[in-house]
Design brief:
The protein is low in regular secondary structure and 56 residues long. The chain is 14% helix and 7% strand. It starts with 8 loop residues before the first strand and ends in a 9-residue tail after the last helix. Residues 14-34 are annotated as: Disordered.
Length: 56
């Protein structure tokens, strides 16, 4: 497995962004993810080496 920096972050594939309800004043709020992003290295290690694919 290649070295991956902990600075690279992402959300898991099943993560879905949510839109908070619009209050009707000001600008509409932006969509956000309910959980913090995780290090790509940890996401790759969680799924195992058989699920990993090379990227360039």
């Amino acid at each position: 497995m290649a070295w991956i920096s902990y600075r690279h972050i992402a959300h898991p594939g099943h993560a879905q962004p949510i839109a908070p309800p619009y209050q009707g004043t000001d600008r509409p709020t932006t969509v956000t993810y309910p959980n913090k992003p995780r290090a790509v290295r940890k996401l790759v290690m969680a799924v195992g080496p058989k699920a990993a694919r090379p990227v360039s």
